[in-house]
Amino acid sequence: MIISILLLVAIPNMTNNNDIASQRGCEATIDLLQAQVGAYYVEKKEYPKSLEDLKGKYVDTIVCPNGTELTLNTVTRAVEVK
């Protein structure tokens, strides 16, 4: 009985923590990519045409840890969720 009560409390908490970790991981990825857009500009004196231009030299991946795809807004130069 006690174990059942503990599980009822713990399982929703763990699920919520996983959701928060995925969200924060995506926010961190966006921040990193945004910084690398700036680094690309400093080095090449032009902005990348897409996030693909950053792969390899500037970053290893251009998607969030949870698989959410990201894109570069070519007008505002901001990294956004696709």
Structure description:
With 82 residues, the protein is mainly alpha-helical. The chain has 1 helix and 2 strands, in the order αββ. A two-stranded antiparallel sheet has the order 1-2. A hairpin with a 6-residue loop joins β1 and β2 (79-81). The longest helix is centred in the first third of the chain and has 43 residues, at 2-44. The radius of gyration is 18 Å and the shape is elongated.
Output the number of helix runs: 1
> Total number of β-strand segments?
2
Could you give a short account of the major beta sheet? 2 strands, antiparallel
| Estimated helix fraction | 40-55%
Structural class designation = mainly alpha
Give start-end ranges of low-pLDDT stretches. none
Radius of gyration over all CA atoms, rounded: 18 Å
Mean pLDDT: 84
First-to-last CA distance? 46 Å
Overall morphology:
elongated
Topology:
Blueprint: H1 2-44, E1 70-72, E2 79-81
Short description:
By secondary structure, the chain is mainly α.
Features:
2 strands; mainly alpha; 52% helix; 7% strand; 82 residues; two-stranded antiparallel ribbon
